[in-house]
Amino acid sequence: MGDLTIGLLGALLATNQPVAVSNLVAEQTGLALPIRNEADPAERELHNLMISDDAAIDEVNDWINTNTIPRSDTNALAALNVKIRSRLDVMKQGYETFLRDHPDSARGFLAYGSFLTDIGDEDGGKVQYENSKQLDPKNPAVWNQLANYYGENGELTNAFADYTEAIRLDPTEPVYYQNFATTVYLYRKDVRDFYHINEQQVFDKALGLYQQAMKLAPDDLVIATDYAESYYGIKPMRTNDALVAWTNALNICKDETEREGVEVHLARTKIAAGFYDEAQDELDIVTNATFKDLKRRLIRSLAEHKNPPPDTTEAPGTNSVTEDTNNSPITLTAVMKKTFTAEPSDPPAVTNLSAADTNLLELPPPIREQKSP
Questions:
Q1: Rounded to whole angstroms, how far apart are CA atoms 249 and 242?
Q2: Domains (ranges, CATH) in the chain?
Q3: pLDDT by residue (tens digit) across 166-214?
Q4: Which DSSP helix (H) or strand (E) runs through 147?
Q5: Lesser CB count within 10 Å: N end or C end of the chain?
Q6: Burial 128-148 (b: 16+ CB within 10 A, else e)
Q7: How far is the CA of 183 from the CAs of 180, 221, 308, in angstroms?
Q8: Residue 290 Cα to chain centre, angstroms
């Protein structure tokens, strides 16, 4: 593991990506490992260890978030680094002691792997996931965690296979479909070469997995916005479907910050679709300072679209909002009234995949399941 302080600071303070709704929704990482048998002393011990794990991560996050040390003060940063390492070493020692006492605890290895992953030691986490899988190969969570590792560190064949196995073991967990969709979307060239399909079909595969996740978790704004954001990477843009996706996301927002975040995306999509007045209406709604820079850029983009340079034309998009597949006119109202009705789709078959080609867009990394003590 590299410099833990720099890694954690980078993860917590990275603000150079465009603001997205997903960044405004609180997410916890970890594992769903409720006590199976409250009368079992080992289960209670693991339960308490995981509560301490959460507390340690929260405490370290607080130290970093409230840290005002300038980067030039290397001595102070070194002291903070020692403080963080010491706090997390206590938890590492706790897990290692537990596993020495309970070497057959698949759930213990899984929890320890999650902790190591959360603090940046992904290779160490992978070792613990493998230990857990050997003890309990029927636990879908461990397959998902291993797939996350391979998706972030190469060996895409393993990532695809492990997501598929997680889904086979628990086809009702939306996170598995969401993670699989993200991996398919990000590694498009490999998917295209492996399945012998074109890029539009790769997008269809990723969108189908997102749709299944949304069907299982219809009120999950993170999944809804990940799905809607994926349309930005499709060229030509499927503006009809993008508008529908963002409208569905808007309908499940729970507060004004979430709603304004979605309004920003609706404005961007309406600009691309040619609905300039409606895009301006969306931007007029946005008053949150969080979106100030994005709003300013979109206002400039809107002006440029309204008054393009001479001899500049835009290629019409697939599924354009200005015409349907039969070339008959379609209105914005008709687009916005369209309802999302995802149908379940079988997970893609898995065979060997070629060497990883990142081809990354700005989508979130795979999500680890929520931890419930």
A1: 11
A2: 205-373 (1.25.40)
A3: 999 999 999 999 999 999 999 998 888 878 899 999 999 999 999 999 9
A4: helix 140-153
A5: N
A6: bbebbbebeeebbbbbbbbbb
A7: 5, 19, 37
A8: 20
